Amino acid sequence: MTSPQPNKPTKGPIDQAPPKIFNMAAYCLGRSSHRPKAKIALQVYTNIEQGEPSETWTYAQLEDAVLGIAAALQDKGLQPGARIAIRLENTSTYALLFFGAIAGGFIPLPMSSQLTASEASFLINDSEAKALAINEHLPVEHLPNGLLLFSEPEVKAMIQHPRRAEFAKTNANDPAYLIYTSGTTAKPKGVLHAQRAAWGRRPMYKGWYDITPSDRMMHAGSFNWTYTLGTGLTDPWANGATSIIYTGPKDPSVWPRLIVKSNATMFAAVPGLFRQILKYTNLAPGDLNALRHGLIAGEAPKPSLFDDWQKATGTPLYEAIGMSEISTYISSSPSVPRKQGKIGKPQPGRRVAILPLEDGTQPLPPNTQGLLAVHRSDPGLMLGYWNRPQEERDVFKGEWFTGGDLAMIDAEGYVAHMGRANDIMKALGYRVAPQEIEAVLSKHQSVSEVACTELKVRNDVSVIGAYIVLNEGFEPDRTALEKYAKANLAQYKCPREYRFVDHLPRTSNGKIKRNQLTAIGNSNVTTA
Predict the structure, then answer these.
(1) Longest CA span, the chain
(2) What does pLDDT average to over the chain?
(3) Which terminus of the chain has a smaller tally of CB atoms within 10 A, N or C?
(4) Within this chain, do residues 289 and 360 fall inside the same structural domain, yes or no?
């Protein structure tokens, strides 16, 4: 049997187009045979010592809540398509407003509570929001005239609104929600998703989760994170499963106890949290009760994490990669075994290809590095960038969307991520992806975390710099790292500078801020 060509779609759950009339909130929470009214849809834990969840919501209660909110928003005079910015604390009210807005045909804009006042105000003004749900403790500034303001108590009162709306009869291509990229190198840009975005997540059900109605999905993120809103809520609810969210103090030792108390069958988080759990807890196979597997996304994991977690817990980890414009689309899963150095395969039904880095739209053959691309027919792909037409044109090459990731697909269809095109370093005349070097150095016994970037040592000379966070018990040893790098990397890929730092600068979503690396660790520089 021959392997499918990387640019050909495999048969799967998005071969069928979404219904023409499609509302994302109705798809997740509307009455159906696999979402019985009395079944538990959401449990929220705030105190691990209590043992019982502080909130328990059935599917019927969630449906009533979001339709009450939809009616309240309508009665405030908001028109369909109005953007509603959400700047609330990490509570279930946040999620209910998000889905309630979608249910009513409005466009929620979820924002992190960690944003500064100026960052939040930029999103509110750039999105031309008509309303803002705001917690009094979270600052904002320079709000536009005429903006409707809802306090958190007012939003909670909407749940009990005397009128219950119907799910808006939106078209599958109508806007559903607006999110903003993390903006590590420039101002964030809005990514507008259609109602069909939830339908476009169907390849993940088997291609990453292997989820069933009997599953209990625990997500380690906050309600205001799109990773949580998608993996933690949207997909479990669409499958009639139970979502579990924890809002209390997030010490690493809390998670194993929560997994056991809640009987979670899946646990989703960024790789760094799994690493912390292993570091600060003492686990043995069978300790995590009903857990079937863990799910990781959001950042590149240390290669040893997979085996370390499997050995400690007896359960596997499955990795996925995605982006704001389409969510995850490549992953490993129970049916796609992990392959060393690879993320996984395109999820069933996805059409993924490698395109030339410069010009051309003809997919490249296997084992050729280029731009990772997904076909624009994918129902999970964004509608476009909010008021950024030129940037929107720049990411499409013919019928393909290219988000800036470099990758290679082998003959078996496995994808290796080679970094971001705009992260590529030009050192000593060579083009080098920082992730390639990081993957090697992270295997050294002394290295806990590592990030690489291009450093200018003269106006006309750039070298590769490595920023190292050491494991406990190790002292900075440039000579040992240099020897290890030379044994495992081509000479031109070896870092010429090593900086030992206490931490790496990251966004609120855990991604490395490469543009800030040069500002840290200046007192701990050693040069090869």
Answers:
(1) 71
(2) 90
(3) N
(4) yes
